[in-house]
Amino acid sequence: MADSISFSRGAPSADIVDVEGLKQAAVRAFENDPAGVTGYGTAIGYVPLRRLIADKHGVPEDHVLVTNGSMQADAFLFDEVVGKGDAVVTERPTYDRTLLGLRERGADVHLVGLQEDGIDIDELRGLLEGGLRPTLAHVIPNFQNPGGSTLSLEKRRALLALAEQYGFLIFEDDPYVDVRFTGESLPRMLELDAPEGSTTPKNVVYACSFSKTVCPGVRVGYLVGNPELIAKIQRRATNTYISPSQVSQAIVYEFVSSDRFPAALQNVKDALAERAGTLGTALREHLPEATFVQPEGGYFLWVSLPEGKGHDCAKIAKEAADRGVQIVKGTDFLIEGGENAFRLAYSAVKAEQIDEGVRRLAEAVHAAKG
Amino acid sequence: MADSISFSRGAPSADIVDVEGLKQAAVRAFENDPAGVTGYGTAIGYVPLRRLIADKHGVPEDHVLVTNGSMQADAFLFDEVVGKGDAVVTERPTYDRTLLGLRERGADVHLVGLQEDGIDIDELRGLLEGGLRPTLAHVIPNFQNPGGSTLSLEKRRALLALAEQYGFLIFEDDPYVDVRFTGESLPRMLELDAPEGSTTPKNVVYACSFSKTVCPGVRVGYLVGNPELIAKIQRRATNTYISPSQVSQAIVYEFVSSDRFPAALQNVKDALAERAGTLGTALREHLPEATFVQPEGGYFLWVSLPEGKGHDCAKIAKEAADRGVQIVKGTDFLIEGGENAFRLAYSAVKAEQIDEGVRRLAEAVHAAKG
Questions:
Q1: Cα gap A290→B120, rounded to integer Å
Q2: What is the pTM of this model?
Q3: What is the CATH number of domain A5-16+262-369?
């Protein structure tokens, strides 16, 4: 079989991780704070890192809780606020693990369509006017996984207004925000939600991660929100694992606060920009019938093939795998539908492999139809 | 107030952690396996560390799952096997966080007395003969927290026989096994439970941790058990946090497999032996009415004062705190009783502080009665 080319996993390739910088950060962590790094911490997280995160978001420290990766943050939050049978809104399509986590907790999940500028506010408003009373609405506002779209400022404000009117919590799940490589950043709903003169959000809880800016292996994510909610989740985290790894968190702290970090992050963004650009070009050339949004950041590109043409992403994925190319089926991100779609992650594919990968993928699309 | 002397927290003092060795291990981790350390791992744990643990216990790798500290291992196991209303047996007294974790899951907890040689098998047999059908029996076999006692070989075999006869799982929770500083090690129930010619336990699942042998800040613990149970918990762990910190696990792997580790562990054991010895001597001198088991390992010494003499550990703890001495009340480890008892952790108190700490504690005991 030809060389394997994976468009499947949302992870950075090792060549864009600053391993030397992380090694130096580890040495500084043990030298600068030996007792803090090696001792038991608490569930709030490593104190200097928590402070750095609070400063970044302009909130008091009691608004922040650091977790063992941001999926653990999701799990704590869901355990805290989502009861069996509770209505929850997510985007359609959305991150498969989020769907799984919600369904495992017995949530009544309502998927609302995703457009180029984010969740379909009119569809959501219709559901709310029709009587739906969600506990939580989960939204990935930047470079959505898998859809790739970014929630517009207008829609951010509209969503906040709906949350206020109907009394639900917006879970702003934002792991990709800091790997924007083109275009302009938008304000977080976390910030937009705080009343005049306050930094405390009313209806937003925010999650982010260092997986995309530092590396996944550190498993460091965090939540920002109302301090009462954070305190409840802190108790839950204490009773689950005492604390996330102090060693990992201290390494992240030393790395992110070092002089090397801005250049390391720029290197990640440059590589992602090149990969996304090459992928878009290759798709236009080899698979012109596909439609997609050219990403401004993040890891993913969502490809739709024309509807009603008999495309079946399961067959396509199989044919692609036979050609050494891995993709993720659109149906994995939806409760129904998605047969004509698939997700391509460009984060782990070197630019020089992309054209070849898409060439084989186009063959697979045609073979799957035949 | 006089200098603070804490007998409260089960943690090593920073001076007995080999920070230099850990720093060197971190450098090797990033140099030897940059992609493995920085990338996403899987919920089974960092592969070389999992292999090292499997080798240590003489089991295939699929019997092992590495977790974010061993309390996380407990949480996954409880979520997997303990349903609401299920009967669970624990020792009386036992680790307060275990009791909390079981009660939060709605378990029907039955506490069985702890003797100098471990759980009271006759009392447990009586409960079983009386119709109790526990899902799980939680036992801390070595240097029990808080009781300090070690389960004898005879009782290990008796407990295994009861598990086989009545069909319950023994949760062998063994964080202190490798910090034995005197006396002879006993075989694990994990090993005793495997049928002739097999390494797979029938009714035992085993948890351990590197918190006591490396340091708590790494948050690395693990489970060993039947591969079907381990696979179920792996799915749960994947859906909770993808994986524990790869960085932390790789540092533990490099440290534990290095030439420095045996001496570092001996240093920990020597310090604990000195602290435990000094504490026993000081108690005999300053608080002769107290009874306790002189520990052969671990972190804790459980002190009982004569019953029926009006001792109240809450008052004693308060009087001790007024004198700058922290202890944990006996009642924290029990559902009822324990007023005449308290737990002293000697792991974090330097030998030269111990005599002074016990002198003040004796004053507190007398003041609390007056």
A1: 70
A2: 0.96
A3: 3.90.1150.10
